[in-house]
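So, can you check what follows?
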Amino acid sequence: MTCRVTALPAPERKRIGLLRWFDRKFEHGRSYSELEVNAIIAEFINDYASVRRYLVDYGLMDRGAGVYWRVDTAE
């Protein structure tokens, strides 16, 4: 059974923690179409567009020409 997230947390610290969890759903060195990103995120939350946008805004993923990839970050 998959756990569902009902909403993104309002406190930034908690939101970043959840975004890092989502980030780990994507492989390093692999490119994803927007549809693939949406499908992976949608398994866990209905608001996949916000999560996708936050992943890019917080520098966990990057995008270009409709392609997304995980950014190497020091954790």
Notes: The first helix runs from residue 12 to 23. The mean pLDDT is 93. Residues 8 and 50 are 9 Å apart (CA to CA).
